[in-house]
Amino acid sequence: MTKCRRILLKLGGESLAGPGGIGIDPLRARDVAIQVKRLRDRDVEVAIVIGAGNLWRGVIGLEHGMDRATADQMGMLATVMNSLALRDALEQQGMVTRVQTAIEMRQIAEPYIRLRAIRHLEKGYVVVLGAGTGNPYFTTDTAGALRAIEIHADLLVKATKVDGVYDSDPMTNPNAQKFDHLTYMQALNMQVKVMDATAITTCMDNDLPIQVINLWEQDSLVRLVGGESVGTLIGH
What we know:
This protein is an alpha/beta fold. The chain has helices at residues 26-40, 58-63, 68-92, 114-122, 140-150, 184-190, 197-205, 220-225; strands at residues 6-11, 45-50, 97-101, 110-111, 126-130, 155-160, 165-166, 178-179, 181-183, 210-214, 232-235. It has a single domain, classed as Acetylglutamate kinase-like (Carbamate kinase, 3-Layer(aba) Sandwich), CATH 3.40.1160.10. A nine-stranded mixed β-sheet has the order 4-3-5-2-1-6-10-11-9, sandwiched between helices. Strands 7-8 form a two-stranded antiparallel ribbon. Helix 1 links the parallel strand 1 (6-11) and strand 2 (45-50).
């Protein structure tokens, strides 16, 4: 793994949640911010896309007859709440941070403007990109892939609670085998659960590598940007 100059860090909403995976825990947000600070201390430019699973899961609405577009729009708004919480935690760690949203809400965040986001990164700011793509029917994984390509990131880092991609669920199968590297097509054919097919295909079409890591593993992000092999690389 080569060293990274600019990364897009894709976080699940659960990364901010307390016990039970629900809500926003300021202490958990602080832990994430400390890890990002360690990247910035190494002059790595960091943009972040965060999901909303800790606040709202659209599938629950769908199960009760909710319109898909409405459920997804609620999810997009929930990502903005997470983005604001993360910005606060990042700024408490001394980082200048900007939140940009795909849905305009100028009183609380900047609208997403690609060149402005790039300029913020060049200045050393952390940029948190909220509201997904701004469109229903697209996941925050796809939003992460899209934004990573737009800002010319070297790597899309999918930070989870599992240390890579396995041939079966390591939580239930102690003999599950971990992959150090997968091609995009292998990941698509395996229908890996860690990232949806649209996001993987978008990265494949634009030659953007994906690194799947355990966010909570000791020094995983720092070791990754330092050039070590961490987690599972999905690429060519």
